[in-house]
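Handout, section B. The chain below has 545 residues.
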Amino acid sequence: MIDYQSLRFDYRRHADQDASTPAHHPVVIVGAGPVGLTLAIDLALRQVPVVLLDNDNTLSSGSRAICFAKRSLEVFDRLGCGDRMVDKGVSWSVGKVFFHDEQVYRFDLLPEPGHERPAFINLQQYYVEGYLVERAAALPLIDLRWNNKVTGIEPRDDGAMLTVETPEGNYQLAAGYVAACDGSRSNLRQLLGQEAKGRTFRDRFLIADITMDAPLPTERRFWFDPSFHPGQSVLLHKQADGMWRVDFQLGWDADPVEERKPENITPRVRALLDSIGFAEVQFQIGWASVYTFACQRMERFRHGRVLFAGDSAHGVSPFGARGANSGVQDADNLAWKLAAVLKGDAPDALLDSYAREREYAADENIRHSTRATDFITPKSDVSRLFRDAVLELTKRHAFARTLVNSGRLSVPAVLRDSPLNTADADAFKGAMVPGAAATDAPTVRADGSAGWLLRECHGQQFTALVFGEGGAAERSVEALKGGDRPLHIVRVQGTTPAGELATQRYDAQPGTVYLLRPDQHVCARWRQPTAANIRAAIDRALAKA
């Protein structure tokens, strides 16, 4: 088994370093973390060559981001590495909330059947990065350069000039577009004189990765004010390789250096295990960190030909797993738009919609994250009294459970107000409104075999879902074929149990058509479209209208 935490990637001198004039590349991505790698792979699969620069030559250390949501897994499926992540990760959907030492309620994030992917997997970030690096290495259009640190950027009308530092000296690169995916301390953000604004929380948390063999169920456990850690909160998650992630709230006055010491971590973990009936279980500490956090974002994610994604653009608290997952969704949103612009299929203005949509999503994530943090870490006697009263009420009253906030877990933002959407002309029910990420369902492939709806959607172009059979469905198919743009058509038959579930989720009738963008967000839907309807909707989704 590969030890991804100990991998060291070789620096290699590139021919660009010896060029008499700076080499030009259509896209340069800065930062080979989960977001930069996802973007690079997505672009390469769309036949866009990418230079990916990283200032280090290692993967992340410690578990860091561990909760990867269903939507991120669906993106990774499209990139060709979702199966590995799900097979290695720990799948879960159930969470339990405790007040003191008593369970006050449980929740299920995916209570209905008929989805290929679980609500979440827990998988250490170094595995996710490792699998993405290996996928990138298999794609010849990705030029991944380790120990290449960007130390200067000069924006230009047609791109940007980058100064890159290497172990053998500096060189320059000309980029048509630059994607800044270089993390919360983004060097590119600083070089451009930009900043992320928001709220910093005066609290400290200890993360400890421990390995142990404890027969605990695979679920999320969150304690408010437990006896083993009074006055604070604790979060417990299971990861791959028999590793467990524990987050202990410490308070603002805690000494980060002291709290990271094994002799101070061990009693905390021991007390937790003793309290839940595992006094005999032995454990080892693998990695630990003390952190503070802020909920903040840049004012604008686009600055000319430089586009910011992931933690470089926005940051949230860890409660709700909205950091890495929102970054993956940034990359998912940006890749198809950048490819369309570079290929001449869309105007440069399409990239403005990237900023608008993902700024909206960042605001939503920050709002949820801030509310969760305020509930988990009350900063006044009144707010603590409110929180504790709510937790007491949850044992007997369902309404109170809607007020409990141990972290509203990551779901994709519904981009209702996106300028790329075509407004409904027909009446529909359900959640699959224009702007929503398409939901999965079982389906039957053209060859009669069982499959999954999102697997059938073509990530390289727009996809049209055509529901039902008979004359209405055939007329819709003919209208789709009458368009002048490449369009992938997926037939969803409603006469099978699998088709019935998809039909229900999409409130479909025979002839209903849903138009999906390449990132699988709904951009238009009709009961019976015309060829003109379809052409207009695609033009609008490409910022041509």
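Note. The CA atoms of residues 183 and 312 lie 5 Å apart. Compare this with the example in section A.
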